Amino acid sequence: MDEINLQRQSSTNDELVLIEEFFAQLTKPKNLDSIRDKAREFCQRNSHLKIALVTSGGTTIPIELNTVRFVDNFSAGTRGSASTEYLLKTEQYAVIFLFRHKSLEPFWRHFSSDELFSHLDVNPETNQVTVCPSFQPKLKEVISEQKKSENRLLKITFTTLSEYLFTLRELTMVLNELGSKAMLYLAAAVSDFYIPPENLAIHKIQSSEPLRLHFELVPKVLRPLVKFWVPDAFVISFKLETDENILLLKARNALKRYGHKLVIANELNTRKHKVTLVTEIDSESIQINSQNDEIEIEQLIVANVVERHNQFIHDQSSR
User: Fold this and answer.
1) What whole-number percentage of the chain has pLDDT above 90?
2) 73 φ/ψ angles, rounded to the nearest 5 degrees
3) Strands (DSSP E) found in the chain
4) DSSP class of 228
5) How far apart are CA 319 and CA 317, in angstroms?
6) For residue 12, what pLDDT is reported?
7) In this structure, is residue 12 part of a structural domain?
8) How many domains does the chain have?
9) 185: pLDDT confidence band, cut at 50, 70 and 90?
């Protein structure tokens, strides 16, 4: 038995060393201390609520130290921003929204810049900005919801993989103090590959000849996140595949490998109207009519997830 325990301890130490070595290669954001302080104050101010960390949007991988070009994991941030909005509307959660700079945000996602400006005008007599009457009900509704939620929403941005991973780790350290009241809803599209800083070109790569790039695998931080950083939280990851035949298998494998609570699995072409919520023991599909634009699937996902999180808190408190 002692030998088994020693092997487990050795394996744990090896995992920690590997992840720390990976982080040591990355560029640490200069505002990390400020982010941690803001997050801690936000959690304390909303201590009567559950706290959700929602990640959203895609990360970039620079291919030059003085970055002109980069490889992007494209994501508009629809799922993360919509889910944040519905979590806030439950009035049970305060949300830390960790999102890609300039990706979609809760509430304001309902308006494009062109749409918003096309419904605004300036009254030449009063010099006041006016809103087209037909647009006022929608604008009023969204602004009212946003104002109702603004003290329960903390927005933090990232662009690069390094910024995302460092910020995610810092935020989980804060959320770890909340135990089972914390929920992580990891909807960001995180790069699977990166170029180590020592292999990056210093200046802009010239276009006078073909370019070959060698990428390394990004270590999966979900395992240390679940095991070490925030072990008592309700952690949800997302799995996107283009082949529906392997989707559930990949989701279940992720649960076994990383030890978290739930995978929300979706196939690329049907993701806007069908998802499957997968646990170690069962799966449940949520589907809406693809022609029905009166309801978003994120509303149903959030309702389901909130119920599961409440049950998780109850189960943990009963131990």
Assistant:
1) 71
2) -90, 100
3) 50-56, 60-62, 70-72, 93-100, 120-122, 129-131, 153-158, 182-186, 193-194, 216-217, 234-241, 262-267, 274-278, 283-287
4) I
5) 6
6) 65
7) no
8) 1
9) very high
* Whole-prediction pTM: 0.91
Residue 7 within any structural domain of the chain: no
Domain that holds residue 203: 32-317
User: Using one digit for the tens of pLDDT, what is the confidence trace for 225-251?
Assistant: 999 999 999 999 999 988 888 999 999
Residue 220 included in any domain? yes
Domain harbouring 228, CATH code: 3.40.50.10300
Calpha distance 169→67 (Å, rounded):
24
In the chain, the percentage of residues whose pLDDT exceeds 70 is 96
Instruction: State how far Cα 65 lies from the chain centre.
Output: 26
Beta bridge partners of 189: 58
The pair of structure tokens assigned to 197 is: 């800083």
Say if residues 82 and 298 touch (Cβ distance below 8 Å): yes
* Mean pLDDT score of the chain: 92
Tens-digit pLDDT profile for residues 186-213:
999 999 998 888 888 888 888 877 888 8
d(CA 230, CA 319): 18
Instruction: Identify residue 142 by its one-letter amino acid code.
Output: V
Instruction: Give CA–CA dist 30/188, Å, rounded.
Output: 22
Structure tokens at 164: 């995302």
C-alpha distance across the termini of the chain, in Å:
26
Closest CA to 180 of 235, 224, 236, 223: 235
Residue 25: in which H helix or E strand, if any? helix 2-25
Residue from 83, 84, 109, 79 nearest 94 by CA: 84
Q: How far apart are CA 193 and CA 83, in angstroms?
A: 27
Q: Is residue 296 part of a domain?
A: yes
